[in-house]
Amino acid sequence: MSTTTMTPANGAGRAALVRAAQGKPAPSAAGAQRVPMGIRTVAGPGAETTTTPTPAQPDRSVERLLRVAAASGSARTRNLAEKIAGLVQELTGRVEAEEAQRREREAAEAQRQELAEAEAQLARQLAEVRQKLRTTGRDTTAQPSRSRREGAEQRAAIRAWALANGHEISARGRISGEIVRAWAAATGSEVTR
Fold first, then answer.
1. Nearest-angstrom CA–CA distance, 14 and 26
2. Residue 169 contacts by C-beta under 8 Å, 6 or more apart in sequence?
3. Phi, then psi, of 44 in degrees rounded to 5
4. What tens digit of pLDDT does each residue of 57-107 get?
């Protein structure tokens, strides 16, 4: 009966792999430890960490793969490359459209911000103008009440004159223009109604 022993490609045996995984050094004359390729060993706190380099990966960019596949001798590979190229184009278009929408949203939001700031500034200015009108309007509001009072006094005087001079006039309501003109001519007064 024969047994077969498998050894990894870099020459390390099973026992060496187990020792490396456990972080134990391999027995050797010089004390150097052989680490299997791609396996990281950690000996413990404060100990050195050893990593063996892995081979460099070939260029696998989408563009390069599509170029290689398009030049392939297999029709299936060429067809697949053509489909993928179409999908990449569609994906590119969608991403660009989403980016354009995002930029538009950002521009609209910036414009909304500017308009909101302008609105707030106009509201402040309007409040200031209203305040100025309130403070200056107090003097002007006294005039209409005074002219109303004068108008009421004048209407009372016209009614009294009309009754004294034989004109028919009601105690309330509108005074006819004829009576007002007669009063103005008789008294030499100005009508301020």
1. 12
2. 159, 162, 163, 175, 176, 179
3. 140, 180
4. 666 788 888 888 888 899 999 999 899 999 999 999 999 999 999 999 999
Strand runs (DSSP E) across 11-167, as ranges? 41-42, 49-50
Q: How confident is the model at residue 5 (pLDDT cuts 50, 70, 90)?
A: very low
Among 56, 57, 58, 86, which Cα is nearest to 70's?
86
Tokens 């929408």 locate to 101
Buried residues in 41-60 as b, exposed as e (16+ CB within 10 A): beeeeeeeeeeeeeeeeeee
Residues whose CB is less than 8 angstroms from the CB of residue 54 and which lie 6 or more positions away in sequence, other chains included:
37, 38
Cα→Cα distances 169→158, 174, 179, Å? 10, 9, 9
3-class state of residue 52 by DSSP: coil
Instruction: Give the position of tokens 């403070």.
Output: 135
